[in-house]
Amino acid sequence: MRVSIFGTGYVGLVTGTCLAEVGHQVVCVDVDAAKVRGLEEGVVPIYEPGLTPMVKANHAAGRLRFTTDAADALDFGEVIFIAVGTPPDEDGSADLQYVLAVARSIGEHMQRPSVVVNKSTVPVGTADKVRAAISEALANRGIDIPFQVVSNPEFLKEGDAINDCMRPDRIVVGAQDEDAVAMMRRLYAPFNRNHDRMMTMDVRSAELTKYAANAMLATKISFMNEIANIAEKVGADVEMVRKGIGSDPRIGWHFIYPGAGYGGSCFPKDVQALTRTASQYGYQARVLDAVEAVNDAQKGHLFELMLRHYGNAEALRGKTIAVWGLAFKPNTDDMREASSRRLLAQLWEAGARVRAFDPEARDESRRIFGERSDLVLCDSADAALEGADALAVVTEWKQFRSPDFAMLKRKLSDAVVFDGRNLYEPIDVETQGLAYWGIGRGRSV
Ligand code: UGA
């Protein structure tokens, strides 16, 4: 099939590339000419394992191309995806200006009956707004072309997006019309060979499904962080508790890892946006309010542990803290809403210096923080330890999982490890003569 995708951000690029990989003809449109030129030359602007070779291979095979020309894309595609960003507004609701700008552009250039598929994460009711924007643009041209608006939310995880896209656990399609469903079925047939993973429903339910999925996962994390905080108070070890509850299949093992709080471009934004949608309909989403409040506090928890260790903020003045991990999670260079940002701000506020290492997020952190005398971005985990007083682990990159604790003891002059992702067993660290602080590991009784 011929597919046009508006937006070459994370979702658009991964989706377009995977659709090309299974044999569809795909054109990706973006307003950013430099980005489009780069993509045509195989320069992928985001770090996502496996994506660059796949983009290059499909481009070379003639199944994937990039353009700034919306008219070309509308002339080409039978299925038109909207996959542009929905950043939060000042009040936390999703800003639809990019989605609606694409919708207008679709209406301005549409040549034949089309299925318009919204893949951006958008509040319930957005499909109606997209439909209205397209209709208005068509009316301005004085023509009437039939079209359908379908909701097809994405469930990609950064760092594992290719796998999620190629082997989806579900494909949610919200549509009003049988023909549109049939079109989506043809499009996704290559992903549906052995099991039918496509679920069809009404448009609003599909839109809400996306938010409900992310809000549920965020809730599990905040719940577990709350249990960790209680564990610290009562002298229990949350890692034992996690094992104790995860074995119940109704609870499950996923997303119950306590830590330094959730970040990224999705959970923080989507929890807030769903809360806003609820309040616009006169409902106060109390669970979601709490999920957000717990997460916000949790981002400051590592610093709290430092205060407990050192006694007060004044004692941190002049200290050098090695920080392992800046990205909001492993296998990405994305630092949006990353817990590291809060920790660094708190350390700087207290007059401490930071030597940080992240395997991928160095350029991104340079872009965010610029040059500053209290931040050294290091080339390796070991280099971050040079001259450091203490170590804080903020992102659970695999390479941080089994450090040489004897070496840590030699290098860290205050001999203390703050483990924001519970990567280590306290006993392994302590037997080397280091103090250990983890999340929810029963330390403050
Ligand atoms: C999330 C969802 O997992 C995807 O299913 C969804 O498609 C995506 O948002 C989206 O809406 O686009 P992502 O933001 O890439 O994906 O990252 P996650 O792997 O979900 O991690 C989010 C944050 O939660 C990270 O900061 C991670 O460290 C934290 N986390 C995760 C925990 O603190 N504990 C856990 O047990 C799991």
TrEMBL record:
<feature type="binding site">
    <location>
        <position position="121"/>
    </location>
    <ligand>
        <name>NAD(+)</name>
    </ligand>
</feature>
<comment type="similarity">
    <text>Belongs to the UDP-glucose/GDP-mannose dehydrogenase family.</text>
</comment>
<feature type="binding site">
    <location>
        <position position="86"/>
    </location>
    <ligand>
        <name>NAD(+)</name>
    </ligand>
</feature>
<dbReference type="InterPro" id="IPR036220">
    <property type="entry name" value="UDP-Glc/GDP-Man_DH_C_sf"/>
</dbReference>
<feature type="binding site">
    <location>
        <position position="263"/>
    </location>
    <ligand>
        <name>substrate</name>
    </ligand>
</feature>
<dbReference type="InterPro" id="IPR017476">
    <property type="entry name" value="UDP-Glc/GDP-Man"/>
</dbReference>
<feature type="binding site">
    <location>
        <position position="269"/>
    </location>
    <ligand>
        <name>NAD(+)</name>
    </ligand>
</feature>
<dbReference type="Pfam" id="PF03720">
    <property type="entry name" value="UDPG_MGDP_dh_C"/>
</dbReference>
<dbReference type="Pfam" id="PF00984">
    <property type="entry name" value="UDPG_MGDP_dh"/>
</dbReference>
<feature type="domain" description="UDP-glucose/GDP-mannose dehydrogenase C-terminal">
    <location>
        <begin position="322"/>
        <end position="426"/>
    </location>
</feature>
<dbReference type="InterPro" id="IPR014026">
    <property type="entry name" value="UDP-Glc/GDP-Man_DH_dimer"/>
</dbReference>
<dbReference type="GO" id="GO:0003979">
    <property type="term" value="F:UDP-glucose 6-dehydrogenase activity"/>
</dbReference>
<feature type="active site" description="Nucleophile">
    <location>
        <position position="266"/>
    </location>
</feature>
<feature type="binding site">
    <location>
        <begin position="155"/>
        <end position="158"/>
    </location>
    <ligand>
        <name>substrate</name>
    </ligand>
</feature>
<dbReference type="InterPro" id="IPR036291">
    <property type="entry name" value="NAD(P)-bd_dom_sf"/>
</dbReference>
<dbReference type="GO" id="GO:0000271">
    <property type="term" value="P:polysaccharide biosynthetic process"/>
</dbReference>
<feature type="binding site">
    <location>
        <position position="30"/>
    </location>
    <ligand>
        <name>NAD(+)</name>
    </ligand>
</feature>
<protein>
    <recommendedName>
        <fullName>UDP-glucose 6-dehydrogenase</fullName>
        <ecNumber>1.1.1.22</ecNumber>
    </recommendedName>
</protein>
<feature type="binding site">
    <location>
        <begin position="255"/>
        <end position="259"/>
    </location>
    <ligand>
        <name>substrate</name>
    </ligand>
</feature>
<feature type="binding site">
    <location>
        <position position="158"/>
    </location>
    <ligand>
        <name>NAD(+)</name>
    </ligand>
</feature>
<feature type="binding site">
    <location>
        <position position="210"/>
    </location>
    <ligand>
        <name>substrate</name>
    </ligand>
</feature>
<comment type="pathway">
    <text>Nucleotide-sugar biosynthesis; UDP-alpha-D-glucuronate biosynthesis; UDP-alpha-D-glucuronate from UDP-alpha-D-glucose: step 1/1.</text>
</comment>
<dbReference type="InterPro" id="IPR001732">
    <property type="entry name" value="UDP-Glc/GDP-Man_DH_N"/>
</dbReference>
<feature type="binding site">
    <location>
        <position position="336"/>
    </location>
    <ligand>
        <name>NAD(+)</name>
    </ligand>
</feature>
<dbReference type="InterPro" id="IPR014027">
    <property type="entry name" value="UDP-Glc/GDP-Man_DH_C"/>
</dbReference>
<keyword id="KW-0560">Oxidoreductase</keyword>
<keyword id="KW-0520">NAD</keyword>
<dbReference type="InterPro" id="IPR008927">
    <property type="entry name" value="6-PGluconate_DH-like_C_sf"/>
</dbReference>
<feature type="binding site">
    <location>
        <position position="329"/>
    </location>
    <ligand>
        <name>substrate</name>
    </ligand>
</feature>
<dbReference type="GO" id="GO:0051287">
    <property type="term" value="F:NAD binding"/>
</dbReference>
<comment type="function">
    <text>Catalyzes the conversion of UDP-glucose into UDP-glucuronate, one of the precursors of teichuronic acid.</text>
</comment>
<dbReference type="Pfam" id="PF03721">
    <property type="entry name" value="UDPG_MGDP_dh_N"/>
</dbReference>
<dbReference type="GO" id="GO:0006065">
    <property type="term" value="P:UDP-glucuronate biosynthetic process"/>
</dbReference>
<dbReference type="InterPro" id="IPR028357">
    <property type="entry name" value="UDPglc_DH_bac"/>
</dbReference>
<feature type="binding site">
    <location>
        <position position="35"/>
    </location>
    <ligand>
        <name>NAD(+)</name>
    </ligand>
</feature>
